[in-house]
Recover the amino acids of this structure.
């Protein structure tokens, strides 16, 4: 029972340094968030010790009476949160959820239709080196010149290739998808509709985004992005798909579920049903809108900065640097230098290689969780706009970032 700091000072030091990094910088990676302490407490609990292959009430191991309780609570809360008939809380990650979902809906060799990775799609939607691209016949749709998903192309490709599954979802897209139109097209070609809401699930839970559960056959998500829970995956569906999805997750792809993570998911679903959570998601979306406004203002444009699709409806903006003297890598480094963490991101038809890119993806969920208000987001947006100009003052920008971080302390009780 030796504490971590005594048993393994090397690992403890890196964990402490990461805590300090999260506290002292502004986290604006769109797929990240800060889990509440109660979520981390559940995740760090004795449930990590328990084997529980199977599902609540139908396990292949003894002694599952308590993890049955936590897993059933997670399932019930999740179904309630999104109005779903079926939920599976066992996928270890978003990619695992997607793998299980895809293999439940289609056979290797079948055709799938998804958003091109280079236009904002995810690896698991058909990228060549991913299981989805290796085992399925992939057809990709794209965004148009205005940066919006080209629904006419989706319809044309669906009619031409008759996919088994149409995938609606994204990792880097600043607008809402037209689920009703995806459903209409899927019905027309007799395809299944799978929505991957990993990025925007928190907005859906808060009622700030259309709910894909109303349209799709299957919906997958992560639990750690806008949803703000532990790192993990989930699957929702109409009840007709229950048997196939359950057996695709276990024994199809996974063995023992991570019951400590499932308990933490349950806690995060409780949080996601609260008024506080809704208010936080409202600040998340408002913060992104402020960022988009500031980064399309005259002085930003003069520095060659622009925003894809001209704005945002969600928790992120995609900065277009094709006219800037900075590439994506340089812009990411420059923001890192002043204490803001973002990731570089390819823009559609990017002239630069994927490791460099001509864009940035900037998200607001983590700062909204920290308590940032519209006023704070305006200050952050101004700091970013200044940092992307040809001439900027590192020291003063660092001071402004530090003031914002100090104003909204993160995990104040955790420092040793
Ligand atoms: N789906 C989408 C749309 C994502 O953006 C991501 C993560 O970036 C995933 C799935 C995969 O999630 P994970 O990293 O938990 O496997």
């Amino acid at each position: 029972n030796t504490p971590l700091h005594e048993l393994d000072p090397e690992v403890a030091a890196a964990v402490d340094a990461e805590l300090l990094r999260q506290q002292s910088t502004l986290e604006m990676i769109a797929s990240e968030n800060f889990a509440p302490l109660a979520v981390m407490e559940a995740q760090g609990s004795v449930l990590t010790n328990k084997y529980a292959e199977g599902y609540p009430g139908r396990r292949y191991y003894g002694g599952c009476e308590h993890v049955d309780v936590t897993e059933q609570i997670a399932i019930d809360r999740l179904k309630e949160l999104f109005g779903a008939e079926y939920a599976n809380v066992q996928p270890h990650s978003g990619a695992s959820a997607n793998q299980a979902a895809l293999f439940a809906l289609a056979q290797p060799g079948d055709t799938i239709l998804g958003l091109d990775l280079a236009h904002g799609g995810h690896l698991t939607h058909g990228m060549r080196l991913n299981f989805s691209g290796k085992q399925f016949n992939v057809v990709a749709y794209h965004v148009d010149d205005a940066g919006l998903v080209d629904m006419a192309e989706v319809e044309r490709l669906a009619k031409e290739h008759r996919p088994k599954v149409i995938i609606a979802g994204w990792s880097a897209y600043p607008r809402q998808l037209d689920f009703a139109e995806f459903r209409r097209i899927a019905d027309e070609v007799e395809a299944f509709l799978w929505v991957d809401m990993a990025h925007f699930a928190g907005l859906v839970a808060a009622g700030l985004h259309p709910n894909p559960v109303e349209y799709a056959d299957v919906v997958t998500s992560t639990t750690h992005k806008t949803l703000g829970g532990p790192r993990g995956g989930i699957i929702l569906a109409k009840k007709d798909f229950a048997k196939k999805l359950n057996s695709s997750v276990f024994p199809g792809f996974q063995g023992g579920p991570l019951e400590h993570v499932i308990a933490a998911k349950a806690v995060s679903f409780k949080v996601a049903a609260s008024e506080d959570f809704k208010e936080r998601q409202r600040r998340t979306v408002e913060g992104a809108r402020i960022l988009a406004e500031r980064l399309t203002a005259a002085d930003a444009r003069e520095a060659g900065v622009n925003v894809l699709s001209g704005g945002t409806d969600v928790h992120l903006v995609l900065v277009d640097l094709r006219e800037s003297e900075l590439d994506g890598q340089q812009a990411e480094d420059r923001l890192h230098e002043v204490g803001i963490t973002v990731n570089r991101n390819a823009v559609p038809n990017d002239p630069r290689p994927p490791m460099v890119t001509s864009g940035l993806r900037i998200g607001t969920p983590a700062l909204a969780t920290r308590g940032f208000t519209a006023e704070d987001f305006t200050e952050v947006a101004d700091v970013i706009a200044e940092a992307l100009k040809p001439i900027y003052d590192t020291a003063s920008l660092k001071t402004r970032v530090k003031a914002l971080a100090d104003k909204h302390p993160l995990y104040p009780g955790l420092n040793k």
Notes: The radius of gyration is 22 Å. The chain has a mean pLDDT of 97. The pocket of pyridoxal-5'-phosphate is lined by residues 31, 93-95, 98, 122, 124, 169-171, 196, 198-199, 222, 233 (CB under 6 Å). The longest strand covers residues 111-115.
